[in-house]
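Hi team,

Filling in the usual template for the complex we talked about on Friday. All components are listed, including any nucleic acid strands or ligand strings, so the model treats them as one assembly.

SUBMITTER: L.P.
PURPOSE: interface mapping
COMPONENTS: two
RESIDUES: 620
SEQUENCES:
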Amino acid sequence: MGLYIGLDLGGTNLKYALGDETGKLSTKKSMPSLSNENQDKIFENIFSAIEELLDETDSDIPAIGMGTPGSVNFERGQLNGTTPNIPDWTNAPIKKSIEDKFGIPTYVDNDANVVALAEARCGAAADCSSVVCFTIGTGIGGGIILDNKILRGASYSAAEVGHITVEMNGKPCGCGNFGCLEAYAAAPAMIKRYRHKLKRTGLLYKEDQLSPEFIFQKAAVEEDFAIETINETCDYLGTGIASIVNVLNPEMVLIGGGVSEAGEEFIQRIEKVVRQKIMKACSDVLKVGKVQLGNDAGVVGAILLAAEGK
Amino acid sequence: MGLYIGLDLGGTNLKYALGDETGKLSTKKSMPSLSNENQDKIFENIFSAIEELLDETDSDIPAIGMGTPGSVNFERGQLNGTTPNIPDWTNAPIKKSIEDKFGIPTYVDNDANVVALAEARCGAAADCSSVVCFTIGTGIGGGIILDNKILRGASYSAAEVGHITVEMNGKPCGCGNFGCLEAYAAAPAMIKRYRHKLKRTGLLYKEDQLSPEFIFQKAAVEEDFAIETINETCDYLGTGIASIVNVLNPEMVLIGGGVSEAGEEFIQRIEKVVRQKIMKACSDVLKVGKVQLGNDAGVVGAILLAAEGK
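RESULT (copied from the run log):
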């Protein structure tokens, strides 16, 4: 039994780890991802991380896995177009570059898909063959596991769970559509709504003072506007999640990302809204919970992707 | 190569046919489904249809397939609970009853799933491995094929595509939720909206004079209210379909059911709305079209279900 290398490329950090086919990590490291450098520099950085791990072990390395932002053509292991936080990562031929350099089979997928895989295999949804994983932060992203496999979609663009409609003809969304879940329930929307409520009272905060954490803290001390803002966010999230549950009838819905750090009560409130809105047969089998693997999810998922090779 | 038996049980008719593993029919028949009789009577009727087909052929019959309204536990071939148009069909043990009687392996699934299978194998989506099929009539139902397989869901309740939200806190829906696509775009909602517009002019039609066909006829002669009603219906349908496309990134969306009979222009308008709302990467690969197999879809799908045995 060899060890696999898992890489998790982000806008800020590159996490890299060694682990086995069950997702158990034996080494775990992080370095800046150099995401604003040119593509060659980013690859050199990734190569140095791989070399560092190879130097550290005498084990056979049967495969390398990697999660990256952006849409990824899984078969080619190549970025489909651009990704906003890594400007020169456009069409990056990740699989080919790593395989050419190291001669080790490499598997690459979108980071949210890789996180969903990790949670479905050895995280919060470890006993589930179908999972929808929501990541709620600056945007709302997601990964979907159906029939134990990542749902990639016909152009590797499935699981855009932030871009389902909650209000037809509603607020404009960054994607060009109107009324998307992301436009109502991601962190910026939450902050905007809270500021708007505060304005009525004459209370003004600067943009950079406000964050979901701030709102959750205010809600914890019973500030009405904060509580209102959170309840509305849960209503929107619950509505969007319910739509997806009625279509996919999954075993589990997982909630992760910065906004989910608000704690158990937040998740419970979302769950309550979801259950009010979905079909009974869907509710009977559905579990709702929080992601479990935290910062390790990306490298664990990348290792599993490598181990499973699909 | 043998011939398969396909059965399509509906609230009015039981269609039954012989066909090969490509879905090509050699015999096609129909009789009343006796849907208001008790379960024994309905089964006797089904048995007589099977006997009639067995009498007609000397071919080996390797398997029987059937589509039925309601949620179906595919492994057990049994209805999950009730279905409104066949009152005594609750928990009907279809697979067991037919296998006990004829000793022929039997596969049973929800009728919308079976239709989607037929369209994906030898209908409008014959070259597609992922298809979302919408049936727009009194309600809005659907069937989903992903990775060439029927998406059944954790409790055999997937593809409730009529019950995704288009307007949060919108109109009440029969499912208990508010703002579902079905509450805005199924035939009854369309008729209600049209009547409401006519009231403004003092024009009154009796409930039973109005139908989607009537509205489409009026639109064809440029009646403003009819055109408005149809445009609104397309906006709702396009919004709901777009949400699902952004989540599943399928190769094809198919539209069927009574309301879809309005013709090519209706489908084209829905497609236009869908493309305005979905992510570009999803639009690049998506085809939108009308179902092709019409009244045969149910028996063809049942035959394919039997032939594939899954």
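MY TAKE: Chain B has ten helices and twelve strands. Residues 4-117+295-308 of chain B form a domain with the Nucleotidyltransferase; domain 5 fold (CATH 3.30.420.40).

Thanks, L.
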